[in-house]
Design a protein that fits this description.
It is built from 14 helices and no strands. The protein is an all-alpha fold and 221 residues long.
Amino acid sequence: MSFEETVKLLKKHANPKNVEGMARFGISSKNTLGVPVYTLRDMAKKIKSDHTLALKLWKSEIHEARILASMVDEADKVTESQMDLWAGDFDSWDVCDQVCSNLFDKTPYAYKKAAQWPKNKKEFVRRAGFALMAALAWQDKNAVDNDFRKFFPIIKKYSTDERNFVKKAVNWALRNIGKKRPGLRAEAIETARELEQTDNKTARWIAKDALRELINFGLHK
């Protein structure tokens, strides 16, 4: 499917009412068509892998085209510079999370960027770092505990960022590491306990929410 055909099909599925609903969940309405994710996944299956198309879709700046790009791109052809460029373009949490969990976590640079991006002051670049941690914890079956142990100090350092889309991603990363890495569950809980004792309300919120899930998850395992 050509770029022109793909964009034409995306616009065919446009739904302005969906855009309004998405906005209520904090999703950017800029260049947004309102195409459901399940429709994008169906399109991706028909398109299959196409790195060149993915790059063109990203440059279109269409919200759904960028999510679709993450579904059809080829991880082994993604470069560090592409990852940094796309991360810098993130302007909505759903695009950020979809790209990180559909594509970026499968690249050779995933762990490097997960540790690097939280240092960036831009809200969605920082979120991308923690979204990558969460995606890797959930999906990388070949990982070892030490791959994630280095993330705990980063989680603690940025747990005071009160921006909504950052603090939720920090929480997400901590929960996923503790839930999907049994050997690190105790350390994840210990990290949350440390945050719970701080005088920062954002860090305490992250801790309280993470502890509730990590402790309950452990009881049912």
